[in-house]
Write a structure and sequence with these properties.
The chain is elongated. It has one domain (about 20-95). A two-stranded antiparallel sheet has the order 1-2. The chain has about 110 residues and is mainly alpha-helical. It is about 70% helix and about 5% strand.
Length: about 110
């Protein structure tokens, strides 16, 4: 069971790295864990870090055996879970208008 969770994490890291890496490579400001308007360098580094950590986890998990079908499925679940989460919240990521304080909302 724990091995399956590792593969979910790997898939999540791979999917999470894509938008940050692409935004950084395109020299666009994009949200990251370090702030709402993170520089392209920050995003490029964060995306690259996600890819490197995912790669190291894959190497660690497959050194002693070949993953079984359920673990590959878990990797895909993690990947598509991250994609779905980003898709559901995409408006928040691309909306440049500041969010009004809760006291000003109707």
């Amino acid at each position: 069971m724990l091995a399956t969770l590792w593969f979910v994490l790997i898939g999540f890291l791979l999917a999470n790295g894509v938008p940050h890496f692409v935004a950084g490579a395109a020299r666009k400001t994009f949200r990251s864990p370090f702030g709402r308007y993170s520089s392209p360098k920050i995003n490029f580094g964060w995306g690259l870090a996600n890819f490197i950590i995912a790669t190291l986890l894959v190497v660690w998990r497959i050194t002693d055996r070949v993953p079984h079908k359920g673990e590959w499925l878990a990797l895909l679940v993690g990947f598509w879970l991250a994609i779905a989460m980003f898709g559901a919240a995409a408006k928040r990521f691309f909306d440049d208008r500041p969010t009004p304080p809760a006291s000003l909302k109707p």
